[in-house]
Amino acid sequence: MIFLVKLAVGLCRGLSLIGAVAVVLMMLHVSLDVVLLNLFRLSMNTTPEIVARYYMVAVAFLPLGWLTLRNQMIAVELLDFAMSRPVRLVSDFVIYVIAAGVYAVMTYANWLKALREAKSGAYVELVSVQMPVWHSYFLVPAGFALATLACVLMALAILSVSIGQTLKTTTESDET
Questions:
Q1: How many helices (H) and strands (E) are present in the chain, helices listed first?
Q2: What span, in angstroms and rounded, lies between the C-alpha atoms of 1 and 148?
Q3: Is 127:42 a contact under the CB 8 Å cutoff?
Q4: Which of 19, 63, 94, 134 is the most exposed place for a label (fewest CB within 10 A)?
């Protein structure tokens, strides 16, 4: 189990790093396009498509697992202040299980879409160039798959904490 957790953390961290690199590359790419356009009246026609089809997809989907493992996803906690710790743990567990299910369905659907796009060799037609974009479709299921794994691990962590606390409480009450 520890190996699986370390593997998941490493994979999630790696994909997040790729997402961070995509942010930097996007900034450099767009800046270069602006400089070339303003100084030399040269335009890289592929910039908007590369930004939309590669950089933004990587930035949006690859860090999902890492954010989940770090518990940094956006959350609305309207009633958490009123819940006891055990009830909050149950609530968090149910949320992670539901999120894992949703992510798994999205992984499957986007994987099928990526396979269809790869098979058809999807491309974007620009002025005089056909730019292949089918590879970018695989970034989405990769991000969702690791988010699924992260949710499952978080749910198991809550479950192990709950079981550990229950065992501790049970053994303490048996001793008295």
A1: 6, 2
A2: 16
A3: no
A4: 94
Each residue's pLDDT tens digit, 61-75? 999 999 999 988 888
Give the separation between CA 101 and CA 152, rounded to whole angstroms.
9
Rounded-to-integer distance, Cα 92 and Cα 116, Å = 36
Rounded to the nearest 10 degrees, the angle between the axes of helix 85-120 and helix 139-175 is 160
pTM tops 0.85, yes or no: yes
DSSP 8-state class, residue 45: T
Residue-wise pLDDT tens digits, 9-19? 999 999 999 99
Strand, coil or helix: 130: strand
Query: What are the phi and psi torsion angles at 96 (to 5°)?
Result: -65, -40
Per-residue pLDDT tens digits for 87-130: 999 999 999 999 999 999 999 999 999 999 999 999 988 777 88
Tell me the backbone φ, ψ of residue 130, rounded to 5 degrees.
Answer: -105, 110
Instruction: Output phi, psi for 78, to 5 deg.
Output: -70, -35
